[in-house]
Amino acid sequence: MAFQFKKFSVNQDKCAMKVGTDGVLLGAWATLENNPYSILDIGTGTGLISLMLGQRSNAEQIDALEIDENAYEQCVENFENSNWGDRLFCYHASFQEFVEEMYEEEEYDLIVSNPPFYTTQYKSENEQRDLARFEDALPFEHLLQGSELLLSENGIFCTIIPFSEEEKFISIANHFGLFPFKITRVKGTPTSEIKRSLLAFGKTEKQIEINELIIETTRHQYTQEYIELTQDFYLKM
Questions:
Q1: Rounded Cα–Cα distance for residues 57 and 37 (Å)
Q2: Residue 134: its pLDDT value, please?
Q3: Phi first, then psi: what are they for 203, rounded to 5°?
Q4: Given CA atoms 109, 11, 17, 192 in this order, what sign does their dihedral have?
Q5: Are the beta carbons of 76 and 54 closer than 8 angstroms?
Q6: 28 falls in which pLDDT band (50, 70, 90)?
């Protein structure tokens, strides 16, 4: 069953990782302040974030990477069915392979990734889902080092990770010459704990803008901030 957004739909029957709040948050939140010409989406899955950025931006080149074959095929299909398929391209490769091949010839103004980040020892019986979910498929070090190599001079890297990993992630990013300038911490409700961190990095150190986003006041009662962030996408917003 396709997930229907306002301006595109996403087929997800072949993907281990379905359309979820994390992807929508990142796709809607990722900054376009440097008016990117080229965008890279690492571990694209269904292609959701690339499609959202195709809708939001005037980027001429939006490349996506997907290592899982079924997800890759689904992503290609979703791109072809969209109104901006001519700007979207999916590579079937691991990020490490892609970096080795491309870092001297391609650079991107915006790189986004909703990375696999379940760092506990838990493994389920579904290997495909594990690959999509677990950090050992794409360690933070590899993600950040490769992103720094592929970013243009004024390029921006945006991601969403568990809040519990924020400090460690920023420390690794600093090591590779990437510095946060915008952090949004996400809570489900006003009284719940911070669950996610949306992070934007650049190659120069500057003042960090930090804020908080609450998704719901009560069940299915969305906050004004969340509605404003996602209303161009969700049908019912």
A1: 9
A2: 46
A3: -90, -5
A4: positive
A5: no
A6: very high
**What CA–CA distance (Å, rounded) separates 144 from 161?**
13
Please spell the DSSP secondary structure of 61-77, one letter per residue: EEEEEE-SHHHHHHHHH
**Separation of first and last alpha carbons in the chain:** 20
Place of tokens 């791109």: 79
User: What backbone phi and psi angles, to 5 degrees, belong to 108?
Assistant: -125, 140
Q: Cα–Cα distance between 172 and 4 in angstroms, integer?
A: 37
Q: Say what angle helices 95-102 and 140-150 make with each other, to 10 degrees.
A: 30
DSSP-assigned letter for residue 18: -
Quick one: pLDDT band at residue 225, thresholds 50, 70, 90?
very high
Question: 0.90 exceeded by the pTM?
Answer: yes
* C-beta atoms surrounding 205 within 10 Å: 12
| Model pLDDT, residue 192 | 96
Dihedrals phi, psi of 28, to nearest 5 degrees: -85, -30
Q: Which residue has the tokens 């809607």?
A: 28
Q: How far apart are CA 4 and CA 136, in angstroms?
A: 32
Name 64's bridge partners: 41, 90
Kindly provide the b/e burial profile for residues 210-234, where b requires at least 16 CB atoms within 10 angstroms of the residue's own CB.
Answer: eeebbbeeeeeebbeebeebbeebb
Check if the beta carbon of residue 8 is closer than 8 Å to that of residue 79: no
Instruction: Point out which residues pair with 39 in neighbouring strands.
Output: 62, 110
At residue 35, what is the residue type?
N
Look-up of token digits 């379940």: 118
How many of the other CB atoms lie within 10 Å of CB of 73? Answer: 15
Tokens in use for 152? 């243009």
